[in-house]
């Protein structure tokens, strides 16, 4: 993937240098300035929320959050223990606030606790991956911050469409995981085989015949 991006950037810059060198230099400087400005704004946003979730964990409030979301988590992740549910609850809370990157470390920790050494991912692992990817968001703070940095007049005017889209995608993802789990996790019934006679008995029957 990195090679593809490198080829695209090199090709576009090469064409701009040969066609309009002044615009190429201006684009590089402006793009670098915008990237640094956006990174600093997102750094402040994530520093605040990651510190907030770290305080929740250290103060023991994550257990209360786990109890609050336990009815949902136990239905979606039936084989998870209490410690795993705590990280899942924090992951879901971060996703509800639109902090996808901040939610990733909690999801990784939850998956590590789910790992039993099997070669295949469990249904709970797949469910957590799907929920994190679809990311139900009540307040998409990351997108709001990016729109505010880009100079949007009303950076939060997309909340209702975003809520509808994320609710629909999360429900479709959960239903899809449940259906696939029922299809692929069915215990395979062994085919009924007729019991074979021992070789000695078969030889005796042939001799007597």
Could you walk me through the main structural features you see in this protein, from its secondary elements to its overall organization?
With 209 residues, the protein is mostly helical. The protein has helices at residues 2-19, 21-58, 61-76, 82-96, 100-114, 123-134, 141-149, 159-184, 199-208. It is 76% helix and 0% strand. α2 (21-58) runs antiparallel to α7 and α6 (123-134) runs antiparallel to α8.
Task: Please sum up the structure shown.
The protein has 209 residues and is mostly helical. The chain has helices at residues 2-19, 21-58, 61-76, 82-96, 100-114, 123-134, 141-149, 159-184, 199-208. The longest helix has 38 residues, at 21-58.
Which keywords apply here?
single chain; 209 residues; mainly alpha; 9 helices
Task: Report how far apart the termini are.
Answer: 74 Å
Total helical elements = 9
Category by helix and strand content: mainly alpha
Major sheet details: none
Layout of secondary structure:
Elements lengths: L1 H18 L1 H38 L2 H16 L5 H15 L3 H15 L8 H12 L6 H9 L9 H26 L14 H10 L1
């Amino acid at each position: 993937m990195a090679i593809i991006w490198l080829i695209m950037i090199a090709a576009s810059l090469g064409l701009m240098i040969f066609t309009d060198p002044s615009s190429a230099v201006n684009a590089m400087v402006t793009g670098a300035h915008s990237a640094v400005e956006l990174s600093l704004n997102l750094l402040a946003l994530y520093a605040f929320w990651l510190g907030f979730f770290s305080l929740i964990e250290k103060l023991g409030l994550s257990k209360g959050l786990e109890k609050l979301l336990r009815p949902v988590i136990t239905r979606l992740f039936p084989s998870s223990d209490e410690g795993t549910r705590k990280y899942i609850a924090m992951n879901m809370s971060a996703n509800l606030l639109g902090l996808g990157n901040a939610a990733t470390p909690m999801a990784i920790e939850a998956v590590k606790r789910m790992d039993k050494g099997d070669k295949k991912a469990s249904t709970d692992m797949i469910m957590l991956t799907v929920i994190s990817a679809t990311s139900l968001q009540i307040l998409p703070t990351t997108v709001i911050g990016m729109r505010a940095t880009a100079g949007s007049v009303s950076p939060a005017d997309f909340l209702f469409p975003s809520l509808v889209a994320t609710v629909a995608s999360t429900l479709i993802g959960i239903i899809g995981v449940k259906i696939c789990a029922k299809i692929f996790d069915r215990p395979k019934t062994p085919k009924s085989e007729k019991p074979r006679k021992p070789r000695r008995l078969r030889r005796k029957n042939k001799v007597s015949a």
